[in-house]
Design a protein that fits this description.
This protein has about 190 residues and is mainly alpha-helical. It is about 60% helix and about 10% strand. β4 and β5 form a beta hairpin. The longest helix has about 35 residues, at about 145-180.
């Protein structure tokens, strides 16, 4: 997800390494802090793979700073990753949030909707943190007070996310229908 975050933020505009780190921290730092030991090697890999350009600029009153920008190959890579996210990017809540942060960059509403439909299908499948006899344990069947809390919070969050997904898919389907070339123009 770190590489997706780097590509996503650089898609929006060139950034210095520190600015990029601050944006990534704002997106997911409360859950998964990003260290220099993870960020800078990831940037180096992306530069080496031709996805990110790094140029040195003189600092205003300090040492020279590296400005990072996305290359055309980096733009294509970001769009490909957004169009076809890995299963873990759909099923893991924090990874999905990272994906959502940049999904607007996909130009096609139908592609955006396809990603949301994958998340919707995941949320519609019966699941739990706990299983008994191969079946998911519901809050009503869980005797432990603290596990009940986990299950209630997950249910409430899931209910709200499902409602949002339904609304978002309705809007994206509307947009996609306007973008279809076979749709007759109407005033």
């Amino acid at each position: 997800m770190l590489e997706l975050s780097i590509l996503g933020f650089l898609y929006e505009k060139p950034l210095h390494g520190y600015e990029l780190k601050e944006r990534i921290h704002g997106l997911s730092g409360h859950v998964r802090p990003v260290s220099d030991g993870a960020l800078y090697p990831a940037i180096t890999r992306l530069v080496k793979n031709g996805l990110v350009d790094s140029r040195t600029e003189p600092g205003a009153s300090a040492a020279p700073r590296r400005t990072l920008s996305l290359t055309p190959e980096g733009r294509r890579e970001l769009l490909a990753r957004l169009r076809a996210p890995k299963d873990a990017e759909i099923t893991d809540g924090q990874r999905f949030f990272t994906l959502l942060a940049f999904l607007r960059h996909l130009p096609d509403a139908a592609d955006q909707a396809a990603v949301l439909r994958r998340r919707q299908a995941f949320l519609d499948a019966p699941a739990s943190f706990f299983y008994e006899g191969g079946a998911p344990v519901t809050v009503e069947r869980e005797p432990d007070l603290f596990r009940q809390g986990m299950l209630r919070i997950a249910r409430a969050t899931g209910t709200e996310e499902k409602a949002w997904l339904k609304e978002a898919l309705t809007e994206l389907d509307r947009r996609a229908s306007f973008a279809r070339p076979d749709r007759p123009d109407t005033p």
